[in-house]
Amino acid sequence: VGGDSFAVIFGLGGSGPAALGAELVELCNGEYTVGERSVYAPASVGVALGRDAEDPLDLLRNAELALVQAKRQGGGCARVFIRDFAALAPQDGVRLESELRQALSENQLDIFYQPIIRLSDGVLSGFEALLRWHHPVKGLIAPSDFIPHSETSGLIVSIGRFALERAMRDLANWQRFFPLAQPLFASVNVSRRQFRDTEFEAFMGKLVAQSEIVPGTLKLEITESALGADPKARHALERLSALGIGLSIDDFGTGLSSLSQLKDLPFDTVKIDRSFLARHGGTQDEHDGAVILGSIVTLAHDLKRNVIVEGVESEAEAQMLRDMGCAYAQGFYFSPPLPASEALNFIALRYDTMEGAGSGPASVG
Ligand code: C2E
Ligand code: CA
Ligand code: CA
Q1: What percent of the chain has pLDDT over 90?
Q2: Cβ neighbours of residue 7 under 8 Å, at least 6 residues apart?
Q3: How far apart are CA 166 and CA 194, in angstroms?
Q4: What is the mean pLDDT of residues 290-315?
Q5: Taking Cα atoms as reference points, which of 169, 218, 170, 209 lies closest to residue 190?
Q6: pLDDT of 104 higher than 60
Q7: For residue 43, pLDDT beyond 50
Q8: What sign for the dihedral angle of Cα 21, 22, 23, 26?
Q9: Could you tell me if 213 and 177 are in contact, meaning their C-beta atoms sit under 8 angstroms apart?
Q10: pTM of the complete model
Q11: Are 268 and 246 in contact (CB under 8 A)?
């Protein structure tokens, strides 16, 4: 069931589950002779009972939880699954991980799209793709509740590919149904772990080659901290950019780097974190936030980068950004992230007012 773990299924015999576990541990505890050498391969054992599980996956998960407990006790011993282990699961991450794997294979993951608006005239420019998990029991789960864990486990690589493929397909459809002088774009978040994955560039190359989107309209959002100071990261960005992929620096201002340090990197957009809209009351705070925001906007525009300010929640904030000459914004004031079907409606309702609308063969089926 894993690189170095095995599952054994028993019909319930005379000896109870604990004795069975101990017996397995004992069996593995022996000494093996390989060639001239003595080899020891002790095992930790997690036992789960069929009657405690709803289905085979649940049974495996319970056994894994018991195994974690056995290892925590130093290993080389057996533990039987008890209900309490399930309560420990969030910290263990074991349950979360197997649930996430299931979510991937059973299409429980989804992408919502949050509109990005041109401030000068309120025209829709594109969308940010944001993961959601339709959990069969817990309902809709936000990415902050499962992405950090999937970063650690490495599952983010598969989850991220799902997000990229889905966003690419939706973007291609929008562009086909709604041709525009300035085509809509889609912006997809990419975490450090994904960006560092050795297969990432090859995957992106294939994704772009197979699609029919307008070059530059698929964008990746990468945070400053995900880039790090690594010169290799810079070269990777250059190759992605050469593939016709747009690049945005996400959550700008929350890290330590400054725009002048980033000016040599090949990104076209800066997304300014919503904390700069400092709405937590203190007038001095608000004033400072606005001053910093204004100077980032000016500097980014001078460096010929697009600017998107995130988390705009009121007309007053939108107006302040317009006054600063900030080009784009995103936030609950314009729209929360929408399911794909609602994003399609969002475009359709505004399509007539957008430049170059109907300039190609459009038909919405
Ligand atoms: P982010 O990239 O900073 O995404 C923006 C977050 O701000 C989203 O939360 C969005 O729903 C929220 N937001 C938008 N407008 C407003 C507003 O006006 N006010 C407030 N208070 N919040 C607003 P969400 O969807 O929960 O995403 C959280 C984070 O999860 C994202 O932060 C991103 O870092 C990560 N994430 C989401 N989707 C993906 C993905 O496909 N791949 C990877 N690697 N990370 C993802
Ligand atoms: Ca983002
Ligand atoms: Ca952000």
Answers
A1: 51
A2: 1, 60, 63
A3: 16
A4: 93
A5: 218
A6: yes
A7: yes
A8: positive
A9: no
A10: 0.77
A11: yes
